Amino acid sequence: MRRAALLLMPIAACDFYPEGAKDSAATTTEADCSPEVVIPTGLIKGEPPPVTPHAEVYGAAPAPFHVHMSWPSRDTSRNAAFVWRTDVDTTASLIEWGPAATFPEGATRTEGASFLFGGAALGEGPYRVHEARLCGLLSPDTDYSYRVGGEGGWSSTYTFHTPPAPGTPWSFRVAMSGDSRGTYATWSTVLSAMQSHAPDLYLFSGDMVELGANQREWDAWFDASGDVFATTPFMAAHGNHEFLAQHYFAQFAFPNNEEWYSFEVGDTLFLSLNDTVRDQSEADDAQTAFIRDTLAESPLGRRVAMHHQPLYSTCTTHGSNEELRELWAPVLEAGGVSLVLAGHNHIYERSVPIREGQERPPGEGTVYVVSGGAGAPLYPNSEAEWFGAVAQSIEHYIIADFSPNGVELVVRDLSGNIIDSFSLPR
Ligand SMILES: [Fe+2]
To answer: What's the rounded Cα separation, in Å, for the pair 45 and 52?
Structure first.
């Protein structure tokens, strides 16, 4: 029985079970984005740290590093969150931002906040993390420039582009990968390759690091990521190796409870789900209800979901999570999700279109993709299964072009060779 008992399981154990949702927020409103910096409680000694508002205080090393951005709300066109690190003594948490065409002339300064995490309770650190949130302040389909920090030390200036208002048809590019844990030189290579395609968004299906409670690994991951996510949003699913550690919640700013959430990019609804749970007794139905309610309430016709442990996988290392399949596949499929991205098995694979446990013609079923090849040790073995269309044990990444006509996906290895391509009809 794959029941959670997360606290008792060794870090290498991978069989966790889905938890329930606590929040099924469903409408796109400015209220979905709060300018307040709130850090969800982590599982491992994860009491939320007290937040320090911006103050003009600079330590010995106030220069921001590990600057990255994400979307903290369902509406991606008007809201964005920015996270960075400094030395522990710097409590200046400003973002200076404005239209790219005129920046820095007439730029606006918005105060963020910072907090310390780690320290004696975690046996490492402490570390100072800053976060600033622009809620309802941005205009859709606009180039913005910004820098973070304060007069005692600013970051470089970065530029990003906001998507159009939710529901607007938009042609955009998504880079997808998963499982970078352990080998950050490979992650750097994968990311550089993805960056060369100039995506508008990075999706990651979990297991960024080997041990989510080890900041040295997070530092290696962010070092390998460079400035890439300072200009292009990064949205992740929580993997079992993140382990619900405070480090994960401290260093990312995702919507809702940061474990399961949705966001809208142009005319596409994205769901990110958490299949590594902290308390099975809460579970099963509520996150399933979140999926069902979010899909039922969204006016957007194209839907993509992302989580870590695959519902369908031919890879024999972990195989398919059949309990999770039983819970989530019916609601994902009935809700019109055309693509489900997972990881966990360190291969690339794609299913046939599936609905209600049967193969369907293209466009009439959900395609389940496993992308677990961004640095973690590859898993060599797959078995023939009725649902398997393509499987290859190889480091890789996916570039998906969304347009009003459909989605074109191309999968490449790290030499640039195309190892798979397929399309999802509108
Ligand atoms: Fe995993």
So the answer is: 20
Ligand 1: distance of its center to the CA of 276 in Å? 9
Ligand 1 mean position, distance from CA 413 (Å): 20
Cα 324 to ligand 1 centre (Å): 14
Non-local CB neighbours of 382 within 8 Å, separated by 6+ positions: 314, 315, 316, 347, 349, 388, 391, 393
374 Cα to the center of ligand 1, angstroms: 12
pLDDT score at 15: 27
Q: Give the distance (Å) from ligand 1 centre to CA of residue 347.
A: 12
Quick one: pLDDT at residue 16? 25
CA of residue 376 to ligand 1 center, whole Å: 9
- The CA-based angle 121-126-128, given to 5 degrees, is 135
Rounded Cα gap, residues 276 and 19, in angstroms: 7
* Burial class, 380, CB count within 10 angstroms (exposed 0-12 / middle 13-18 / buried 19+): exposed
How confident is the model at residue 27, as a pLDDT?
45
CA atoms within 13 A on the CB side of 150: 23
Mean pLDDT by 10 residues, the chain (426 residues): 30 28 41 84 71 96 98 97 98 98 97 87 84 97 98 98 97 98 97 98 98 93 98 97 91 94 97 86 73 96 97 96 94 97 98 98 96 96 95 98 97 98 91
Q: Specify the pLDDT at position 208.
A: 98
Q: Which CATH superfamily is domain 21-161 in?
A: Purple acid phosphatase-like, N-terminal (2.60.40.380)
pLDDT score, position 252: 97
Amino acid at the residue 160: F
* 198 C-alpha to ligand 1 centroid (Å): 27
In angstroms, rounded to a whole number, what is the distance separating the alpha carbons of residues 241 and 181? 8
pLDDT computed for residue 30 by the predictor = 57
CATH superfamily of 172-425: Metallo-dependent phosphatases (3.60.21.10)
Q: Give the distance (Å) from ligand 1 centre to CA of residue 344.
A: 4
CA of 115 to the centre of ligand 1 (A): 29
Start and end residues for every CATH 2.60.40.380 domain found in the chain: 21-161
